[in-house]
Amino acid sequence: MAGTEQFRHFLDLSDAGADGIAAMIADALDRKAARKTWAKGSADTDRPLEGRVLALVFEKNSTRTRVSFDIAMRQLGGSVLILDAGSSQLGRGESIADTARVLSRMVDAIMLRTDDHAKIEEMARHATVPVINGLTDRSHPCQIVADLLTVIEHKKPLPGLEVAWFGDGNNVLHSVLEAAGLMKFNVRVATPQGFEPEAEFIDMARAGGAEVTLTNDASSAAQGADVLVTDTWISMGQEDAAEKRAAMEPFQVNLALMAKAKPDAVFLHCLPAHVGEEVTEDIFEGHQSVVFDEAENRIHAQKSVLLWSFGLLG
Ligand code: CP
Ligand code: NVA
Predict the structure, then answer these.
(1) What is the number of the ligand 1 atom nearest to the C-alpha of 140?
(2) Which ranges of 155-290 would DSSP assign to H, the alpha helix?
(3) Are 159 and 260 in a shared domain?
(4) How does pLDDT run across 232-244, given as a tens digit for each residue?
């Protein structure tokens, strides 16, 4: 590939659409299988992003997103540089628009983790290289590509699966709902009253043909589910309020809840987890938990997202 003329931003799963997501998953499965016994930092034989540099820009903390994008770029033959808001001019008020234009002259792609989703839209408007959403307050699409990959590996094809979400109606749930409409699985959303996901994402899932059930009763959501998912009760940037924690308690994923799901149900959590809060230790460490496969799959998913963004996939 000579330039980045065919680049595509990946701000949300709908940017890639069902075909794009399917292509990402297929490529991730192939590349993962091909390099099973290789050293993690060694490159895939085709080195499709040879010479390319990805800037990882963080306005919030990260372990998995930071490391998996770095390793993903090494495996694709490219490299990364990391900018933390606190140590760059972004943290001193340089505009997103100027940052986008400067980085576009210096690197081949930008991943941004930030708070307000409008900031990543602004970055995408001004960048002339692909911009990838590494989490905003609104959504976390890269996480969900890894989650879909994990579910397919452990269970079965996505269409018709019953996915149950417990706890806060947050950014990760928004991307689960967006994926449901694209990949045709159903979502039971169990949240306390007042912590439901944004209506826009429920509408998006339903418009795509997914069945979405909203409930305040965790056990009805777990009944016969294929996949149980939860996340922290307090996301980055949110107020850690005692009332919110109290409201979340009945939505903890524990043995009693798991007993209502299908016997072969799997447990997902994007991590970091707060064991003893949103999930009990027996579930987190138990045989139905696939959370560390899910974490590893961030690498394989990220590689597909990058290839798609460079116009090399889907
Ligand atoms: N799941 C996830 O995005 O983890 P990090 O916050 O560690 O990147
Ligand atoms: N909902 C969490 C996800 C962390 C990966 C947060 O935004 O903090």
Answers:
(1) 3
(2) 171-183, 199-207, 218-222, 242-248, 255-258, 281-284
(3) yes
(4) 999 999 999 999 9
pLDDT recorded at residue 5: 53
Q: Are 178 and 107 in the same domain?
A: no
Q: How confident is the model at residue 40 (pLDDT cuts 50, 70, 90)?
A: very high
Sign (positive or negative) of CA dihedral 206, 204, 236, 110: positive
Question: Helix 171-183 and helix 141-154: axis angle, to 10°?
Answer: 60
The rounded radius of gyration (Å) of the Cα atoms in the chain is 19
Ligand 2 atom, smallest distance to 172 CA? 1
Q: How far is CA 104 from CA 50, 144, 291, in A?
A: 18, 26, 35
Q: How many CB atoms lie within 10 A of CB 93?
A: 6
CA 194 to chain CA centroid, nearest Å: 24
82 plus 99 within the same structural domain: yes
- Counting residues of the chain whose pLDDT is more than 70, the rounded percentage is 98
Any residues with Cβ below 6 Å from ligand 2, and which? 135, 170-172, 231-232, 235-236, 270
Do 171 and 280 share a structural domain?
yes
Q: Is residue 59 part of a domain?
A: yes
15 flagged as catalytic? no
- Which residue range(s) make up the domain with 220? 155-289
CB contact at 8 A, 14 and 208: no
